Amino acid sequence: MENPASLSPAARILGFAGLLPLIGCAAGLVLLPAHREALLDAGFGYAALIFSFLGGLWWGQGVARGKASAALFSVAVVPSLIAWGLMLLRLLGCPLREALMALGVVILLSPIVDLALAQKQLNMRGWIALRLQLSAGLGALTLALAVL
């Protein structure tokens, strides 16, 4: 097996830049308390969108492998279904705090799939470390919104 390439600095910088919307929402809760509900809803929507995006990454890895199992493609749609389900629950009256907590937890757990995929295919050097950092950041920020 040949040595995999390393992630580019741009991938790292832009990955971490993806945390800025939730950092902005958290800061807004402190600076603009009159807009609390809108900021929490915006943070929830963004976190759900990014969680759904993770499933797209897994789907793409399955396509790139060329012989991925139906199980991988099944797992790849789970984040979108969870995000949609949580959005639906919000529309049906589920408290925002609980929806944010559930979303934060599943985001924190999402690297389990990446770790399983890494066992079966060659990944860029630094990919798993970046995924762990970004999921920890996004999950923690989502949970922080739930308790702020």
Task: Write a structural description.
The chain is mostly helical. It is 78% helix and 0% strand. The protein contains seven helices and no strands. It has helices spanning 9-17, 20-31, 36-65, 70-91, 96-109, 111-118, 127-147. Helix 2 (20-31) runs antiparallel to helix 3 and helix 3 (36-65) runs antiparallel to helix 7. The longest helix is centred in the middle third of the chain and has 30 residues, at 36-65. It is globular and about 50 Å long. It starts with 8 loop residues before the first helix and ends with a helix. The mean pLDDT is 92.
Task: Give start-end ranges of low-pLDDT stretches.
Answer: none
Mean pLDDT: 92
Number of helices: 7
Strand content: under 5%
Separation of the first and last Cα atoms: 47 Å
User: Tell me, what's the shape?
Assistant: globular
| Helix-strand category | mainly alpha
Strand count, sense and barrel status of the largest sheet are: none
What percent of residues adopt helix (DSSP H or I)?
over 70%
Give the topology string: H per helix, E per strand.
Answer: HHHHHHH
**Total number of beta strands:** 0
SSE arrangement:
Elements: H1 9-17, H2 20-31, H3 36-65, H4 70-91, H5 96-109, H6 111-118, H7 127-147
Helix pairs in contact: 2-3, 2-7, 3-4, 3-5, 3-7, 4-5, 5-7, 6-7
Record keyword descriptors for this entry:
148 residues, mainly alpha, globular
In short:
The chain is mostly helical and 148 residues long. Helices cover 78% and strands 0% of the residues.
